[in-house]
Amino acid sequence: MTLALDLFPRRVDPEDFARAQVDRFTGHQLRIGRSRVVHAVAFRPWLGDLTLPVPACHQGWSGFAAAGDLLATSDPVTCRKCALRAGPVAVVAEQTALFPVELP
After folding, report:
1. What's the CA dihedral at 99, 41, 91, 79 to 10 degrees?
2. 63 near 25, Cβ under 8 Å?
3. 1 exposure class (CB count in 10 Å sphere: 0-12, 13-18, 19+)
């Protein structure tokens, strides 16, 4: 029996979808929507033993990857949390601050 999900007006086989996402994001970073912040990729459980790519820093987003909310990129990671989780990797560009912070 084949399971299919109704995703934005077409039916999608979850195994094919998950495999395509893993292929698309393996060896790449990701952006969420129109954001300029580049995140490292982690793969998290989805359905059964299938996995999908997510930001390694656990940054949330409103949407679903099937709608094109996550974009694969070869740009270097600019997310500070992703860079810290990965270890001693230099962040290439400064991540935009939400508000000014004065450091001692």
Report:
1. 0
2. no
3. exposed
Q: What is the pLDDT of residues 52-62, one digit of tens each?
A: 999 999 888 77
Phi, psi of 81 (to 5 degrees): -65, -40
Please identify which residue in the block is written with the tokens 């793969």. 43
Element (H, E) at 51: strand 51-55
The structure's pTM equals 0.70
Residue 97 above 90 pLDDT? no
In whole angstroms, what is the distance from residue 21 CA to residue 9 CA?
19
DSSP letter at 34 equals T
